[in-house]
Amino acid sequence: MRYGMLIDTRYCSGCQTCVVSCKMSNQVGGDAFYSHVISLDGDVLYQATGVFPDVRIKFRPTLCNHCESPACFANCPTGAVAKDVETGIVSIDKELCIGCGDCAASCPYDIPIVLQDEGIAGKCDFCASRVANGELPYCVAACPTRTRYFGDIDDPDSDISKMIAEFGAKTYLPEAGTGPSVYYIV
Q: Fewest C-beta in 10 Å: which of 47, 54, 71, 182?
């Protein structure tokens, strides 16, 4: 089993409910965030691109990709970054983390962050405790446009795997070679 997420950017409104729900549910302090919304087709968030009448504005929500070969895991000097062999979820053990930032520096997606208030690194863990209880990650449950889907991407019969195949969903920065578990319909 390998958990993954599918985000349908065609319907993302850029509202940032996923970002806020993640910050609140994970009690991320200060100005730190485990997820972000970036512009899909321009350099400036909330600025339309194109020329009338072909104007558009699209968003890409980002979060930890829970990679098959996570760079953060490979570069953590203390073993604080762990990948669950049963679920594929990549997490950070706060007891082992020394806050060196090697995970953040090595991640091609700029996802782990050093939490200045705590002196340790933090990142999305797919709301592992919720998932273990049969619940969806907060960002999926909170999305008002229902653009996020979560499930076992190793099971070809799962709804998420079928949607990835049907819509030709792609990963973000596949050239990084990490094997992301987050897919996007663009």
A: 54
